[in-house]
Specification:
alpha+beta, Butyryl-CoA Dehydrogenase, subunit A, domain 2, Butyryl-CoA Dehydrogenase, subunit A, domain 3, 3 domains, 11 helices, globular
Length: 379
């Protein structure tokens, strides 16, 4: 496996870098936050992303996409992560598109994928019901009554759930809490009777929601994949999401590190540039090394996904674990090296620490993935 981008991936990366620098610098995020934007993302910016073809990266050409693969969308996530760009890109173009393209029927693909590629709908995937990521602990119930499914339960911390048009919901059709078997995925319209969306504010000022399902009645055709195959399906969907999110977290780390290096070269203490202090040089060197290791882990995972690597589960957990630990280190060190102003709203560096704290726990933190990696490796 070559840990380098091919020509198409490099072009996507360059395009995303220019877009993020010119259209969505950190000031764009700051403006949305200061204006208490109800979506926490800009519709016009999202339309521009769609026009660039980003919403269809994981969608086959027959449904209006480009099918550039997970590496293609991941390099975009990395670049927009550098400027903390908020958008439905992750929840819709990665999670929703991947889930429907991989497990949907031909009719479902024809119904939803062109709409995703054209930017006509956004999606969100509703999995967790506890404070910590534990997909197999799902206890939202789905009962078949005649020719219809009836869903009841609650979902927490749904990424982009407050603005989604379509929800992909993991529910239990049999078994007990903790069982991988007995889980089923459903496609549900967010405006459906009995679906309550409760917007949730988090430290990173992104779009999240809790979802309440109260006797939500849907047709048998709303199944995504086979009945009770949701445990296996959600593993694959989540792993692709974890890899793309790891790429974004890598971008967060790179930008925070560069911002800190520039500060070390400009800030003087007692008439001396603080970047000349050996202790700070050592800490900066550690950050640099960890970022380089993270690059290798993320690139291996995203290339492995496109090559259908048999070891993808371990690669995804390794990438998410390392990306989380690196971002935690870099965001902490960056704020500390900025000193007291690092925690004030005047400087952008604090935004990276807030994003880090939330991104680290989405779809499993370092502890979750280290344990998963160990189990998959039969340790």
């Amino acid at each position: 496996m070559k840990l380098v981008l091919n020509e198409e991936q490099q072009m996507l990366s360059d395009s995303a870098k220019d877009f993020a620098a010119n259209r969505t610098p950190v000031n764009h995020f700051r403006s949305l936050r200061d204006n208490n934007d109800p979506l926490n993302w800009d519709k016009d910016v999202w339309k521009e992303m769609v026009d660039l073809g980003w919403a269809g990266i994981l969608i086959p050409q027959e449904f209006g996409g480009s099918d550039f693969g997970l590496a293609g969308i991941s390099v975009i996530m990395q670049e927009v992560g550098k400027t903390l760009t908020p958008s439905p890109l992750f929840a819709t173009a990665v999670m929703g598109a991947s889930a429907i393209n991989t497990f949907g029927t031909q009719e479902q693909k024809a119904e939803y994928l062109p709409k995703i590629a054209a930017g006509n709908i956004t999606t969100a995937i509703a999995i967790d019901e506890e404070s910590h990521h534990a997909p197999f602990n799902s206890m939202a119930q789905a009962e078949l009554v005649g020719d219809e499914w009836v869903l009841n339960g609650k979902k927490k911390f749904v990424v982009d759930g407050a603005s989604a048009d379509i929800l992909i919901i993991l529910a239990r059709t049999s078994g007990i809490k903790g069982d991988k078997a007995g889980l089923t995925l459903f496609i549900v319209d967010a405006s459906h009777t009995g679906v309550e969306i409760i917007k949730t504010d988090m430290a990173d000022c992104r779009n999240y929601a809790n979802v309440v399902l109260d006797n939500v009645t849907i047709s048998k055709d709303a199944l995504l994949g086979d009945q009770e195959s949701g445990g296996e399906a959600i593993d694959k969907i989540l792993d692709e999401g974890r890899i793309a999110l790891s790429a974004e977290m890598l971008g967060n780390s790179e930008a925070a590190f560069e911002m800190t290096l520039n500060y070390l070269k400009e800030r003087k203490q007692f008439g001396v540039l603080i970047g000349t202090f050996q202790a700070l040089q050592h800490r900066a060197a550690e950050m640099f090394c960890e970022i380089e290791l993270t690059k290798s882990a993320v690139m291996a995972a995203m290339q492995g996904a496109d090559e259908n690597n048999n070891d993808l589960q371990r690669m995804a957990s390794l990438a998410k674990s390392i990306a989380g630990e690196t971002l935690y280190l870099v965001s902490n060190e960056s704020v500390q090296m900025h000193g007291g102003i690092g925690v004030t709203d005047e400087y952008d560096i604090g935004f990276y620490m807030k994003r880090a704290r939330v991104a680290e726990v989405i779809f499993g933190g370092a502890n979750f993935h280290q344990e998963r990696y160990a189990n998959l490796s039969n340790f």
